[in-house]
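Exercise 7. Given the encoded structure of a 305-residue chain, write a plausible sequence.
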């Protein structure tokens, strides 16, 4: 029974990795851009939700907000931040330097955004973990002896609904067909009349939405946030994305769940100190044996959405 409980916990934890891994996959699959701000967006969502429930709006504009309102505002803030990243670390650099940099400058500038934002939040709120205000009702469900928390179940369901919806949008909608055309060949897409300047921000909006949801669900699940929370989640989401298959949304789902299960089983059998060894060991093993990932294509990376 204890092992089943750990497997269940692993799936629940994996749902957070899934959401963040899909965010990474979107930007890599469409833009061939490893967006280093994704862990920061994840952290920003959690910290904003905590600050709004504890202090209210900035400059004393309100009393502490009820957590549903705070969570909604936190998601909006995260989407806005993601659009700022698009405007100043991707579009501006692409406009100024074109393809000559092969995305190197946008990548480095996104890394700069990550470090600046994290350190500003550390200066404002300190480095210590902060406790989220708990909801007033019992959030635990006993399912045949396996304890499940409602926020964890919500996180899992939301992750799959988002991925299924995103998959439908990419396959069936006009916006999705445009994004897939950009992913396959941006120059050919422009010749065919696809307006990449209008569609690329959609990717960043979806990225902000995914990170915002992941951040607040993580905060509700574990009741704790910190300025460094994005780094660990982001690195494991990247591992899940690579194991599942670069550029494959369903690969990101599979990889994220595998990483979550592997982490919980590792803690159960060997202790928390060995988690990083196992996770990155699985990543290296996947790169040696199947570099395209479990659900990836023969050509690694871009244009496989």
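Solution.
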């Amino acid at each position: 029974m204890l092992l089943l409980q750990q497997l269940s916990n692993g799936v629940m934890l994996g749902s957070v990795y899934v959401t963040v891994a899909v965010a990474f996959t979107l930007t890599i699959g469409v833009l061939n851009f490893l967006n280093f701000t994704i862990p920061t967006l994840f952290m920003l969502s959690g910290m904003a939700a905590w600050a709004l429930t504890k202090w209210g709006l900035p400059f004393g504009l309100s009393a502490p907000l009820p957590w549903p309102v705070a969570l909604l505002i936190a998601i909006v803030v995260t989407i806005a931040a993601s659009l700022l990243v698009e405007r100043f670390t991707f579009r501006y650099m692409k406009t100024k330097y074109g393809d000559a940099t092969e995305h190197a400058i946008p990548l480095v500038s996104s890394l700069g955004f990550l470090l600046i934002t994290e350190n500003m939040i550390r200066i404002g709120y300190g480095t210590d973990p902060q406790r989220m205000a708990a909801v007033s009702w019992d959030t635990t469900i006993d399912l045949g002896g396996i304890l499940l928390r409602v926020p964890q179940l919500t996180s899992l369901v939301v992750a799959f609904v988002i991925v299924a919806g995103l998959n439908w949008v990419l396959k069936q909608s006009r916006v999705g067909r445009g994004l897939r055309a950009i992913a396959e060949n941006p120059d050919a897409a422009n010749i065919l009349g696809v307006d990449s300047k209008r569609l690329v921000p959609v990717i960043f909006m979806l990225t902000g939405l995914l990170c915002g949801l992941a951040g607040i669900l993580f905060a509700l699940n574990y009741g704790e946030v910190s300025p460094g929370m994005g780094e660990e989640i982001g690195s494991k989401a990247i591992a899940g994305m690579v194991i599942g298959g670069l550029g494959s949304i369903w690969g990101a789902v599979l990889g994220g769940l595998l990483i979550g299960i592997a982490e919980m089983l590792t803690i159960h059998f060997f202790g928390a100190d060995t988690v990083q060894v196992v996770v990155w060991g699985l990543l290296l093993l996947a790169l040696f044996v199947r570099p395209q990932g479990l659900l990836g294509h023969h050509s690694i990376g871009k244009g496989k959405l």
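Remark. The longest strand covers residues 140-143. Students should compare their own answers with the one above.
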